[in-house]
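STRUCTURE:
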């Protein structure tokens, strides 16, 4: 077994497409297939199920990937540091929706411009899914909104954010502030399960013994903003998501008298993964950008 075999296996675990992995690692597709066959032969088990012309990570493969990815990352980072003092290496990053859509894109661009020898792959998902992918070793580091319930990762707070309740009904918003209980009968628009924004909102509501009328649930914020054009709807959402709409008078903040919906942006790292200079540099860039928004 060689480090190259492990690199190819982990690349396939992240992206189970031999052609894409071959292109990314600058080897032939046949070379990827051969390396996988030899690794499986040496271990005496199958790591992927063959489905038609494709492959899919099986239970044994997921277990091996979750254990190997943090260790391989540490080794790669250590070797890179010895070879050069420059920022060099691969970053596999992920973030929950608000950060991924409204904060990270310019940071990713600036970081790549400053550190051209760093290869960055990035994905967006719910808070729950990002934490899971850090647990599994698929992501080197994740950034999420709200509480993290996992013993396999360690978290670092980056910035606290206050969520806002919004509506497209100007008169209703201006008639506030309202006790939260008076708003519960409105047509609330929520993100689907796994969202940090949803969890923050419901945590505060349930803590007060209340139950909102959940009118519709969506997988993304754009859908919520689209339906918010209807004046009988409400949403509790990040001000980052609706900044443009609030500025242009398309949406209005509904003042709430008896509660402040706050949550914390968190950095998520596997407990077996060290915070390398490369990971730390990127994390600092995000924290700096969040600080500018204060």
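SEQUENCE:
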């Amino acid at each position: 077994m060689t480090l190259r075999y492990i690199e190819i296996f982990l690349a396939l675990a992240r992206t189970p497409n031999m052609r894409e992995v071959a292109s990314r690692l600058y080897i032939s597709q046949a070379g990827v297939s051969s390396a996988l066959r030899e690794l499986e032969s040496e271990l005496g088990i199958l790591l992927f199920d063959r489905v038609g012309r494709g492959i899919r990570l099986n239970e044994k493969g997921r277990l091996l990937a979750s254990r190997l990815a943090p260790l391989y990352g540490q080794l790669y980072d250590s070797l890179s540091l010895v070879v050069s003092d420059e920022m060099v290496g691969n970053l596999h990053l992920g973030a929950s929706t608000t950060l991924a859509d409204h904060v990270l894109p310019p940071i990713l661009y600036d970081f790549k411009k400053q550190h051209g020898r760093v290869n960055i792959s990035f994905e967006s998902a719910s808070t729950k899914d990002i934490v899971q992918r850090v647990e599994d070793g698929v992501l080197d580091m994740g950034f999420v909104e709200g509480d993290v319930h996992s013993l396999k990762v360690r978290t670092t707070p980056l910035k606290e954010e206050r969520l806002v309740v919004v509506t497209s009904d100007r008169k209703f918003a201006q008639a506030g502030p309202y006790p939260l209980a008076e708003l519960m009968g409105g047509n609330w628009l929520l993100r689907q399960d796994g969202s940090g924004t949803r969890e923050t909102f419901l945590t505060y509501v349930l803590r007060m013994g209340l139950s909102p009328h959940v009118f519709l649930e969506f997988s993304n914020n754009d859908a919520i903003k689209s339906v918010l054009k209807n004046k009988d709807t409400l949403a509790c959402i990040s001000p980052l998501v609706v900044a443009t709409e609030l500025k242009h008078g398309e949406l209005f903040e509904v003042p709430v008298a008896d509660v402040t919906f706050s949550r914390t942006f968190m950095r998520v790292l596997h407990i077996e993964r060290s915070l390398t200079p490369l990971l730390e540099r990127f994390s600092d860039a995000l924290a700096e950008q969040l600080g500018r928004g204060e």
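REMARK: The radius of gyration is 22 Å.
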